[in-house]
Specification:
heterodimer; A: 539 residues; alpha+beta; FAD/NAD(P)-binding domain; eight-stranded mixed β-sheet; 24 strands; globular; B: 249 residues; alpha/beta; Rossmann fold; nine-stranded mixed β-sheet
Chain lengths: 539, 249
């Protein structure tokens, strides 16, 4: 069946910081380039979740006058703390003993979702066509194998994939260059990396899962501009992770937890670790008397330069965390994502003007400050595979004494789905029950995300082997999907003594953790009907 | 025949609405907004009637701040021919809305006016009825089926007792129920085309209508939290609790 076709110079898949920056820079370089941007969320920003302490370096380049343009960047970082947590005690680490990359002077506490909404307004004013609610579900190729563009998802299919009365066929968007800006573990980016072997001779990508809650706290406990990070409890020495707590405007704090997805114990539940973390006296005292108003989670990139794939291929580029430009020791990815988008736009402009090959993108990237930054940061994350304490000691030497200039590079050894140990070798973890004041269950949490998927549509979490969860994964790993999913999409139910693997896909918040962590890579995340998923506000 | 459809921009039905701490209203900043769901049914029905050759033009009108235009654009993307945006900032009550719509009806001279049976934000369920009174037109509310006849409409209404079928003369007002139809998707090509369709902008003040609220809102607060349920061990305990604690038997 033939679909309608639209031709553009550039099609961008994803309306996050990298995709929007690519679009804006393209139009700034040449207003005649026609650009179309697709976004799977119901509106720009609704699928964006990030800490976020923002370094303005890339935005300064894109809009030097962002203050006059009233960008939603208002809360300057005024104070910083770093705590090591024991079970009940905490040790405050002097900030002068932190590596320079972790200093946040001149940075701002922002909502990245709101920044993206603002960037989208600027983009539309420049004449960029933005279409929220239209996920790109498929890469299209030319006969010579180069990328031709993307197709949007069909709408109005029922559970079995039959056409309903409301059926609308997807549409083909053809472009001279297609830019993939889907964020961490983009489902099209993933297929491109495989098809074009972009990760050849690179380390396996490393991921984390990040949680975020927004709390409105008591005025007397709120210190606008305070940035606090913690390491330690409740995680053990072997598990990589830590928390953030940012005092934003309007008596709100952005509270979050990140756990490396290379954890080993299948009984570990990242969600419950985060909930438990809030019961620590030094955190509880801040939240007490306050109210949780938002919740969400999203996988993030942790692999850095060693895992960064080649970012160009015939007819297409990868930008931001669809490739993996996050700077882990800096705990920041927005400025690097934006910068990669700016560089991609410059490369495309050369490609159109001087017929340069798209490989110029990689050349420009290597010459930029973002590459230098990622190079200096490269050894931090792998050193934590030796445990928290050795990791900290090494990072101190690497980052404070040598400023990231040690003459060797540590490698990441395993992909995250290979790190789980069999359940019988690992201790069970007994998580406390939620009190519904400070700690919550997954059901009441997903409710705050505003998540919905139109019912009676195909399940967008595909199993390669339908029987594997019960026949193998349950037996060997006690089916960890029940625990790593931050909203309880996966359940093992028992009916008449028969175990059943249930996928509540309507709750999915598009975090992609299952696609990453499933030990046999049995779960594939594909795009649901447009507009589905969470409806985050100022995350 | 010409059909005017009124659409309203409201907080999306999936969003968990949060009351402002000072009790002056609900939080709308950076909250996902959408077309009021039964208004989507109203547009869908008007477009269907047009597609069946029984109407020539569908005009979508919205009243509200600048961003309310999104709802008109969406209506244009699913088949409306022309849009009107009446600009007003702040809260406007059903009476003011009805008076504005009355003016629009006088200008546009539609044969039918469709709208959702009520908006999911204030749940007033008044605008259609008030507009009917102001225009002195017949009204059919809570429509779950509409059949266009020569000079009349046969409308099936969702009422407490079941379904009621009535006939009204044209012109008339119809307020639409969610059961009326299944609204179509706005396809990408149609969204693109909708950007080129005419959208007229009018300031409410230019229509000479006083939109000042007549109701003083004292306080908005959250409903009391439901207590967690308990499990009882026996029927006897249940009966005892219903009798002595809940005092319902």
């Amino acid at each position: 069946m033939s679909r309608e076709v639209m031709e553009y110079d550039v099609v961008i898949v994803g309306g996050g910081p990298s995709g929007l920056s690519t679009a804006i820079k393209l139009k700034q370089l040449n207003p005649d380039i026609n650009v179309c941007l697709l976004e799977k969320a119901s509106e720009i920003g609704a699928h964006i979740l990030s800490g976020n302490v923002f370094e303005t370096r890339a935005l300064d380049e894109l809009f030097p006058n962002w203050k006059e343009l009233n960008a939603p960047i208002k809360t300057k970082v005024t104070n910083e703390k770093f705590l090591f947590l024991g079970k009940t005690k905490s040790l405050s680490w002097p900030t002068w003993l932190l590596p320079k990359v972790q200093h946040n002077k001149n940075n701002y506490i922002i909502s990245l979702a709101n920044l993206c909404r603002w960037l989208a307004e600027q983009a539309e004013a420049l004449g960029i066509e933005i279409f929220p609610g239209f996920p790109a579900s498929e890469v299209l190729y030319n006969e010579d194998g180069s990328v031709k563009g993307v197709a949007t998802q069909d709408m109005g299919l029922d559970k079995e994939g039959n056409k309903k009365d409301s059926y609308e066929s997807g549409m083909e968007l053809h472009a001279k260059v297609t830019v993939f800006a889907e964020g961490c573990r983009g489902h099209l980016g993933k297929t491109l990396i495989k098809k074009f072997e972009l990760d050849k001779n690179k380390c396996p990508q490393q991921y984390g899962i990040g949680f975020k809650e927004i709390w409105e706290i008591k005025e007397e406990k709120h210190q606008e501009g305070l940035v606090m990070h913690t390491a330690g409890w409740p995680l053990d020495n072997k598990t990589y992770g830590g928390s953030f707590l940012y005092h934003a405007e309007n008596k709100q704090v952005f509270l979050g937890y990140v756990i490396g997805l290379d954890y080993q114990n299948p009984y570990l539940s990242p969600f419950d670790e985060f909930q438990r973390f809030k019961t620590h006296p030094s955190i509880k005292s801040i939240l007490e008397g306050g109210k949780r108003i938002s919740y969400g989670a999203r996988a993030l990139i942790e692999g850095g330069l060693q895992s960064l794939p080649r970012m160009y291929m015939p007819g297409a580029l990868l930008v931001g965390c669809d490739a993996g430009t996050l700077n882990m020791p800096k705990i920041k990815g927005s400025h690097t994502a934006m910068k990669s988008g700016i560089i991609a736009a410059e490369a495309i402009n050369y490609h159109f003007k001087d017929k340069d090959d798209l490989s110029i993108y990689e050349k420009l990237f290597k010459e930029s400050w973002v590459y230098k930054e990622l190079h200096e940061a490269r050894n931090v994350k792998p050193s934590f595979s030796w445990g928290l304490i050795l990791g900290i000691i090494f990072t101190g030497i690497d980052q404070i004494l040598f400023r990231g200039k040690l003459p060797f590079t540590l490698n990441h050894k395993h992909a995250d789905h290979k790190t789980l140990k069999p359940a019988k070798e690992m201790p069970k973890i007994d998580y406390p029950k939620p009190d519904n004041i400070l700690t919550f269950d997954k059901t009441s949490s997903v409710y705050l995300t505003g998540t919905n998927h139109a019912d009676n549509q195909p399940v967008h979490l595909k199993l390669k082997d339908k029987n594997l969860p019960i026949n193998y994964t349950l037996e060997k790993f006690d089916e960890p999907a029940q625990r790593y999913c931050p909203v309880g999409v996966y359940e093992v139910q028992t009916e008449n003594n028969i175990k059943k693997f249930v996928i509540n896909s309507q709750n999915c918040i598009h975090c992609k953790t299952c696609d990453i962590k499933e030990p046999s890579q049995n779960i594939t995340w594909v795009t649901p009907e447009g507009g589905g998923g969470p409806k985050y506000g100022n995350m | 025949m010409k059909i005017l459809v009124a659409v309203k921009r409201v907080i999306d039905y999936n969003v968990q609405v949060r009351v402002k701490e000072d009790g002056t209203g609900v939080v709308t900043d950076n909250v996902k907004m959408s077309t009021n769901p039964p208004d989507d049914n109203a547009i869908e029905e008007a477009v269907k009637i047009k597609e069946a050759g029984k109407a020539k033009e569908v005009v979508a009108v919205t009243i509200g701040e600048d961003k309310a235009q999104e709802t008109v654009r969406k209506a244009l993307a699913v088949g409306a021919d022309k849009g009107i945006h009446v600009k007003v900032d702040g809260i406007i009550e059903p009476l003011a809305v009805s008076k504005i719509l009355q003016k629009i009806v006088e200008n546009e001279k539609p044969d039918l006016v469709f709208m959702g049976k009520q908006a999911i934000d204030d749940d007033c369920n008044q605008t259609g009825q008030m507009l009917a009174a102001l225009l002195n037109w017949p009204q059919a509310t809570f429509a779950s089926k509409i059949e266009v006849k020569d000079k009349s409409l046969e409308v099936t209404r969702e009422v407490d007792e079941g379904l009621e079928t009535i006939e009204t003369n044209i012109p008339s007002i119809v307020t639409c129920d969610l059961r009326l139809n299944e609204p179509r998707y706005a396809s990408l090509p149609n969204i693109m085309k909708a950007k080129k369709k005419p959208l007229e902008q009018i300031n409410a003040s230019d229509l000479g209508i006083d939109t000042k609220p007549r109701i003083e809102q004292i306080k908005v607060e959250e409903p009391p939290k439901r207590k967690a349920g308990i499990k009882v061990a026996s029927v006897a305990e249940l009966v005892q609790k219903l009798k002595n604690e809940a005092k319902v038997i």
